[in-house]
Amino acid sequence: MINRLIILGNGFDLSHKLKTKYSDFIENYYSQIKDSSWKDDFLEFLIPGYLFNNMNSLKEIMNYMSSRLGEFSIMHPEKNLHINRKPAILLHNHFFYEISRKIESNWVDIEIEYFHNLLKILDQPSTNSIYDDIKKLNQEIDLIAKKFEDYLIDNVNPEISSKYNDKTAHLFEDRLIPDSESIEEFLKEFPESYAKTIRTDLMKKWKDNNNWSKFDETLILNFNYTNTAEELYSDKLKNYKTINIHGSLDDIENPINLGFGDEMHKRYSDIEEKNENEYLRLMKSFAYTNTDNYRELFNFIEDKVFQVHIMGHSCGISDRTLLNAIFENKNCKSIKVFYHNYDKKNTNSQSDNYSEIVRNISRHFNQKTLMRNKIVNKSLSTELPQLKL
């Protein structure tokens, strides 16, 4: 009667205490640099003889070198970024340098930063080097994606099996407590106009068989590169399928996809009109065509009425085209947010991120009336459990 579409984002992995943030990856990278003989595809040091003990960020390394060298220069192969006195660091990946600096002071969405850099190149006064600059940017993103994949394979995948959470497992179960009150509670998550059409059938189903499922089928739409939910909780699901929409680790057929997915952005047409395929290469929609994932998703949402469960996905604009297609689909009757309840010690003025996610969801709707009818209110929503270590 009703299907379920579970949308998983990075917050789901974080709720299992898995270090899957870009900042975790960047911190891990710099922690491996033990001295100034380091050289790789991201950067190299030009002045040997300095030891970097227990340093986990570019800022710490730079402060240490500055205390001993005074002013020094960070060089790019084509240009100087800082014109100071002593050449000390040579950059081979300028974008990685940028996000390393920004992530130390604030949370950074690499995919949005990529899009902003792309637009910056397109808007530069001189058009002579636009193609080369964008090609270089795309190559830098390719390298970061590969290094990030290696990090997840080596450091995160081995940890998943030990992160089972009983409270999270309960969220994947699709059976109702066999009483009429639980059915009424479930129906409150849908617009009353739709609830009326299915109330009688649900009550009959309950009377005929008190051991029944709320959902006929479940599709897990996984935006993460890890496969945490399926590895830990597949035994809680009877009839389900997983789509790793952004790719899977170490999978040639479905490689990880790090790019930008907002074709509704007002500047997207500007990129298309440049008539250069390289400018569009890291747009997510084109990566989706490499597999059957997109078609399978649309077969699911076009087949039958469904409810969306959002677990750990911020619903940011970097995935707007895809999320808009899901949320505004005629078969999407309800969107339930599983929100993060902040630690009481957290100084954040908000106690949870329910409202933040709902505001983000609103950006994916062209028809705002639909949004208000579909989003389950907070009193009926559920906290996303956090694993306690």
UniProtKB/TrEMBL annotation:
Matching InterPro entries: AbiH
Pfam families: AbiH
Lineage top rank: taxon: Bacteria
UniProt protein name: AbiH family protein
Organism from which the protein derives: Flavobacterium chuncheonense
